Amino acid sequence: LAMRVPASVLTSRGCPTGCSFCVGYRMTGRKGRFRDPLRVVDEIEAARHLGFEEVCIDDDLFTRNRRHVTAICDEILRRGLKLKLYIFARVDTVDEALLRKLREAGCAMICFGLESGNQRILDLANKRATVERARRAVELSKAAGISPLGSFILGLPGETRETMDETVAFAQSLGIPHGFHLLSPFP
Questions:
Q1: What is the mean pLDDT of the segment spanning 118-144?
Q2: What angle in degrees, to the nearest 10, is found between the helix axes of 96-104 and 131-144?
Q3: Contact present, 110 and 146 (Cβ < 8 Å)
Q4: N- or C-end of the chain: fewer Cβ atoms within 10 A?
Q5: Residue 104: strand, helix, or coil
C-alpha cells in the first residue's frame, strides 16, 4: 500500500463564497476553474494502480458545481473504480440526490466547514449558511452513508464565551467527529 495515506487530487480551483475568515481566495481566486472530469479520473485511476485505496479531493469546495461533481462520479462508476473518496463541501451545496451519487462513487467522508453553532457569528463571518442547514446537511450525509466531519472556528468576530459554549454544544449535538480551530488573523 502507498504508506496508508490518501492520494490527493485537485479537480478545481477557486471559491466564490467570500467568508470573512478565509484567505484561500488569495491563492486560488474566486472564479471557478474546473479540470476535465476524464483527466481527473485518469489521475484517480493512476493513484489506484499505485496502491492508493483512498483519495482526498482537496478542492476548497468540491461540491460547488453539480455538473462537474456528477461527471466525475459517473466516470468513476463507468470505470468500476473501487476506492474511498474524502471531500470538502459547504452545507448549502449538498442535497439527497448529490450525496447519493457521491456515495455510489465511493465517497466515504465529507468535511463541512460549519464554523459556528451561533447564527449571529455565522452572519458576521459572511458564511451565508444557517445552523439549521448545517444540521440538515449532516443528517442527509449520514442517511446517504457518508460520514460527516465538522470543522469549527473559535474566535470569529463577535465571539463571546457564550457563543463559544453554544458552538461546542452544537458540535456535540450533531453526534459526528469534529474539530476546533482558533482564528488566526493574517496581515
A1: 97
A2: 40
A3: yes
A4: C
A5: helix
Distance separating alpha carbons of residues 36 and 67, to the nearest angstrom: 12
Closest to 79 measured CA to CA, from 49, 45, 113, 30: 45
Helix (H) or strand (E) holding 171: helix 161-173
Of 87, 95, 84, 140, the C-alpha closest to 113 is 87
pLDDT digit string, tens, across residues 37-78: 999 999 999 999 999 999 999 998 899 999 999 999 999 999
If DSSP codes are grouped into helix, strand and coil, which group holds residue 158?
A: coil
Distances (CA, A) of 143 to 57, 59, 93, 101, 112: 21, 24, 16, 13, 16
Give me 53's grid cell: 485505496
User: What Rg, from alpha-carbon coordinates, does the chain have?
Assistant: 17
What's this model's pTM, rounded to 2 decimal places? Answer: 0.91
The Cα 85–Cα 49 span in angstroms is 15
DSSP conformation letters of 26-92: HHH-SS-EE--HHHHHHHHHHHHHTT--EEEE--TTGGG-HHHHHHHHHHHHHHT---EEEEEE-GG
d(CA 55, CA 150): 19
Name the strand (E) or helix (H) holding 154: strand 147-154
Q: What is the pLDDT of residue 80?
A: 97
Local structure of 147: helix, strand or coil: strand
